[in-house]
Automatic annotation (TrEMBL):
<comment type="pathway">
    <text>Amino-acid biosynthesis; L-lysine biosynthesis via DAP pathway; L-lysine from DL-2,6-diaminopimelate: step 1/1.</text>
</comment>
<dbReference type="InterPro" id="IPR000183">
    <property type="entry name" value="Orn/DAP/Arg_de-COase"/>
</dbReference>
<dbReference type="GO" id="GO:0008836">
    <property type="term" value="F:diaminopimelate decarboxylase activity"/>
</dbReference>
<feature type="binding site">
    <location>
        <position position="365"/>
    </location>
    <ligand>
        <name>substrate</name>
    </ligand>
</feature>
<comment type="subunit">
    <text>Homodimer.</text>
</comment>
<feature type="active site" description="Proton donor">
    <location>
        <position position="337"/>
    </location>
</feature>
<feature type="binding site">
    <location>
        <position position="227"/>
    </location>
    <ligand>
        <name>pyridoxal 5'-phosphate</name>
    </ligand>
</feature>
<feature type="binding site">
    <location>
        <position position="311"/>
    </location>
    <ligand>
        <name>substrate</name>
    </ligand>
</feature>
<keyword id="KW-0456">Lyase</keyword>
<dbReference type="GO" id="GO:0009089">
    <property type="term" value="P:lysine biosynthetic process via diaminopimelate"/>
</dbReference>
<dbReference type="Pfam" id="PF02784">
    <property type="entry name" value="Orn_Arg_deC_N"/>
</dbReference>
<dbReference type="Pfam" id="PF00278">
    <property type="entry name" value="Orn_DAP_Arg_deC"/>
</dbReference>
<comment type="similarity">
    <text>Belongs to the Orn/Lys/Arg decarboxylase class-II family. LysA subfamily.</text>
</comment>
<dbReference type="InterPro" id="IPR022644">
    <property type="entry name" value="De-COase2_N"/>
</dbReference>
<feature type="binding site">
    <location>
        <position position="307"/>
    </location>
    <ligand>
        <name>substrate</name>
    </ligand>
</feature>
<feature type="domain" description="Orn/DAP/Arg decarboxylase 2 C-terminal">
    <location>
        <begin position="27"/>
        <end position="363"/>
    </location>
</feature>
<feature type="binding site">
    <location>
        <position position="365"/>
    </location>
    <ligand>
        <name>pyridoxal 5'-phosphate</name>
    </ligand>
</feature>
Length: 410
């Protein structure tokens, strides 16, 4: 989003016009940014056979899935419903990887029936899988390298206390199961968390994973998960994917030479591909000055954007209605009957009631985490593609809230 001739525009589309046409609160995504991020990442790994699987839990609208499919991306899924969405979006089963945590063996069997790639993250399910399928259906193994990384404890998933993956200290047991049940291991995988800034953390994890990979002779790919950090503030730093690409390509190629075969390097980014493509617009309902604070109360809350309350995430906020205004200090709060603070003591261009505010980095884990708390409707979603706005999700109505409720006579 840029200011052009005094107006905020997203790829040439006027932001205030979008809010007028579709109402607020409103999620808007720009395919130009998604494409730029996808190309940046694939370019960084062009020196080796690579594949990016878009982690669709970040933003799961079917149009977004199709957009990534058309760019050549695969799909990373964490539930059987995401698998079904991916198939409906037109992904070939082999381009979908199912990486669930703590699901039943029944759900894994469904994924096998759909023909997608399966990533197993615990020994109990692996043992059931091996007993049931033997070597007839290949699997990928999710390992936990036990490194502490990530922006917040809720999104750090590779550390020692984490529920994710098979511990690298359990590889003896793992090998025992694989051998005795004849399991065919086609991939090994790790995912250590989100918002990892340090390239060396990735390399350290990669080293541990490659060490385990040596023991599996039938590999086709090695999946290094995700966790790339994006910029949240103006001039914020992000993961240097170019440096990462260069260093990992070198390590990976050396590994392949030693392994005796060229394997594919895979990643499953969510946030990196869509976070910065998204904007969340809301309207200021009330300016409330208390003895201590100037609150800007907006027409949305933690029901539509929970990341600031759940992860302490920073979302940059701009007053789209007052691009040239002078900065003043505000605490931006939602309309939910809990303390749902989006930002405290934030400098924002002077705000009046009815002004439109914009939250940045609203592409990943924002709409997909929205809910109906306080019986509010979920917002509409709009996709900007080639300079044109398209409605891709309608705002909910009262009928949606009641759709699955069954009225009984008491
Ligand atoms: C959530 C998740 C991702 C995506 O993480 P980002 O930080 O959004 O890139 C990748 N892989 C797995 C297994 C995940 O659960």
């Amino acid at each position: 989003m840029q200011i052009t001739e005094g107006n905020y525009q997203i790829s040439g589309v006027n932001a205030l016009d979008l809010c007028k046409e579709y109402g607020t609160p409103l999620y808007v995504y720009d395919t130009a940014k998604m494409e730029a991020q996808y190309k940046r990442l694939t370019k960084a790994f062009k020196g080796t056979k690579h594949k990016m699987n878009y982690a669709c839990k970040a933003l799961s609208n079917i149009n977004v899935l199709r957009f990534f499919k058309d760019l050549g991306s695969g799909l990373d899924t964490v539930s059987i419903q995401e698998v079904q969405l991916g198939l409906k979006a037109g992904f070939a089963p082999d381009d979908i990887i199912f990486t669930p945590n703590g699901v039943s063996f029944e759900e894994i069997k469904k994924a096998v029936d759909f023909g997608v790639r399966i990533n197993i993250d615990n020994l109990s399910i692996l043992e059931q899988f091996g007993s049931y399928y033997g070597g007839t259906y290949p699997v990928c193994i999710r390992l936990n390298p036990h490194i502490m990384a990530g922006g917040n404890i809720k999104i750090s998933v590779g550390h020692i206390d984490s529920k994710f993956g098979i511990s690298i200290h359990q590889t003896r047991h793992l090998e025992r199961l694989v051998k005795s049940l004849g399991i065919k291991v086609e991939g090994v995988h790790m995912h250590t968390g989100s918002d990892i800034l340090d390239v060396d953390v990735f390399l350290q994890g990669a080293d541990l994973l490659l060490n385990v990979a040596r023991d599996f002779p039938d590999l086709k790919y090695i999946d290094f998960g995700s966790g790339f950090k994006v910029a949240y503030k103006p001039n914020d730093i992000s993961t240097d994917v170019e440096e990462l690409g260069k260093k990992m390509t070198k390590i990976f190629k050396e590994f392949c030479a030693e392994y005796g075969r060229e394997l594919e390097i895979e990643f499953e980014p969510g946030k990196f591909l869509v976070s910065e493509s998204g904007y969340f617009f809301c309207k200021v309902n009330v300016i409330k000055q208390t003895t201590a604070t100037v609150f800007a109360g907006v027409d949305t809350g933690m029901n539509h954007l929970i990341r600031p309350m759940f992860y302490d995430s920073y979302h940059h906020i701009e007053n789209v209605s007052n691009p040239a205004g002078k900065k003043r200090v505000y605490t931006v709060v939602g309309y939910i009957c809990e303390t749902d603070t989006f930002a405290s003591d934030r400098q924002i261009n002077e705000i009046k009631e009815d002004d439109i505010l914009c939250f940045r980095n609203a592409g990943a884990y924002c709409f997909t985490m929205a809910n109906n708390y306080n019986s509010r409707y979920k917002p509409a979603e709009v996709l900007i593609h080639k300079g044109k706005a398209h409605l891709i999700t309608k705002r909910q109505t009262l009928d949606d809230l009641l759709a699955n409720q069954v009225e009984i006579k008491l």
